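Aim 2, interim progress: modelling of the iron/sulfur cluster-bound target.
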Amino acid sequence: MNFYDSEKMVDLLKPLGYELHNDGDDADIIVLNTCHIREKAVEKTYSELGRIRDQANLRKEKTGKKTIIAVAGCVAQAEGDQIMKRSPWVDIVVGPQSYQNLPELISKVDPIEKNKLISIDFPVIPKFDQLKSKITQRGPSAFLTIQEGCDKFCSFCVVPYTRGSEYSRSIYSIIDEAKKLIDAGVKEITLLGQNVNAWSSKGKDGKVWRLGSLIKELAKINELQFIRYTTSHPLDMDLELIEAHRDIEKLMPYLHLPLQSGSDNILKLMNRKHKVDDYLKIIEKVRNYIPNIAISGDFIIGFPGETDKDHDATIKIIKEVKFSQAYSFKYSVRPGTPAAVFFNQVDEQIKSSRLQEVQNILREQQFEFNKKSINSVIKVLILKNGKKVNQYLGRSPQNQSVYFNHEKENLIGSIINVKVSEAFQNSISGSIV
Ligand code: SF4
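Predicted structure of the complex, ligand included:
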């Protein structure tokens, strides 16, 4: 989502004459867009701001020009004016729900006097209603935020505090942006939301639409070839969405559905509001409807109170579901969240060894999944050049990275058939059919 927000900020600044610069050495403005999800996000933000200060000072010495420094994103939201206190060289602090104000804030920066501009309110007029900027440049695949914020309050997560309560964009504004993306050359859209499958809005027929209906509507856009969405919550996985997977060819057979733990005790402590069995029933239903679907997930290892028995339950579930890929991390404290003050934090060494065990199994499963693609012909959207000469990188319908070689014309943005001949841990490779 931060990637999407960064692109939107670029779109907002282009009409003011700004161009995207690859490094900050001669930039007129540096926007540090921060994420609060990973560990030590706050410390990393301050250390990066120190580096940016040195960069801006050097430019000032050399050219006499001031660099405007802005901090955006969830750390900006969480820290607010603390950022100005600890890093007084920062000009602008702007939260994820108010970056549409960036052009106005930039215009108010005083080049000589320090004036502190902070915009971290949750706006009364939704951000997207004010974000009508022209889409300037995108690759063949783009993100489109349809939903933001979360009301679920998992005990480990900062999102409800930094992104606010659940908000769904209107269908009209989503379709409008999708069409603009298509006009910019996009062929694949990934619908984004912290709880993307909680999206709901009044549809064209006056009824409340859910994600399945939205996808059906987007699929009517001819030039749009591939549709994906992320990230979903098990509680919001309704039949309409599962049916959409079965019925809409443009919706890719890939489902990222976080489980976090295989133990009901831990799920309860995490406040996930569902049990392991609920998750398994969803997976069973999804696989009944779409046998070839790739299932991905998220796991938090070593959540406070996690015992050996809880850990074994997680291992059991992973073995049962067989993921095509999954993300797993050691639990780490997020200040301000309920789990941060739980007493029974798990020892770091135990967390590390449990994580290793989980990741070994997940790696094996991913490799096995990739091996199953050998000899099949798959439709691939070419995203960019690979690292080797004449090499291209694309994505398979099941979200695998696909490599192949081609010498002649530039294929980026094309959709081609690739016959898979080799499988690796994180990718597959083959040749054009
Ligand atoms: S559902 Fe997702 S975004 Fe919402 S609180 Fe839980 S982990 Fe965070």
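The chain has a mean pLDDT of 93. The longest helix spans residues 348-371.
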